[in-house]
Each structure stands twice: as C-alpha cells, then as structure tokens.
Design a protein that fits this description.
With 99 residues, the chain is α/β, with parallel strands linked by helices. It contains four helices and three strands. The chain has one domain: Barnase, Chain D, CATH 3.30.370. Helix content is 41%, strand content 13%. Strands 1-2-3 form a three-stranded parallel β-sheet, covered by helices on one side.
Length: 99
C-alpha cells in the first residue's frame, strides 16, 4: 500500500460503497464520496474498494475532473461485514498517509 499524500494536506480516507458505484450512472454523477470531493476541492483522497476492477475503473474515471490527488488502493475482504478486517485495511492506509 502506498498512499503518498503530503502531511500538510487534508485527506479523506473512505471506503467505496455501493452508493458511490451506483452514483456514477446518474447525470450528473452523485454519491457520498463524489459529493464530498466536489464540495471540498482542497482535500486529497485515499479510497479503499473491495469491488471488481471493472466497477472501480468506471468509478475512478468519474473522479478525474476534480484536480486533487485521488488514490485508489484496492483491498480484498472475504466478508464485507468483517469489521476487524475493514479496520486493519483502514489503519494500514492511515499509517501510510501519516508516513
């Protein structure tokens, strides 16, 4: 994992959810992460998905117009309700951002 965000920059760490993925099919695109980045242009992002690569590629394409650094760090979960695994992935991403 290589979330290389500058330490003085504000950073959003978020899990890409179904609402985010579904939001790219609307005009204009919508969704929790999309809406946040649109209204907070100075915030960089590290986004964690556990979705098929094709879905993530389409989603990433909708985020390219924001101008800030957005890094997508794919992770694998055996069970999306395994909150311990979700925590470990998020903690690793935060540690990477902090370094």
């Amino acid at each position: 994992m290589s979330a290389n965000i500058r330490s003085e920059t504000k950073c959003l760490l978020a899990w890409i959810g179904r609402q985010d993925l579904d939001g790219v099919s609307t005009k204009p695109p919508r969704g929790p992460i999309f809406d946040f980045l649109q209204t907070n242009p100075g915030v960089e992002a590290v986004l964690l998905p556990d979705w098929r690569e094709s879905e993530i590629a389409q989603y990433a394409g909708c985020l390219t117009g924001f101008g800030q650094k957005i890094e997508i760090v794919p992770v694998t979960l055996a069970d999306p309700t395994d909150y311990g695994a979700v925590y470990r992935h998020a903690d690793a991403a935060l540690s990477s951002v902090a370094n």
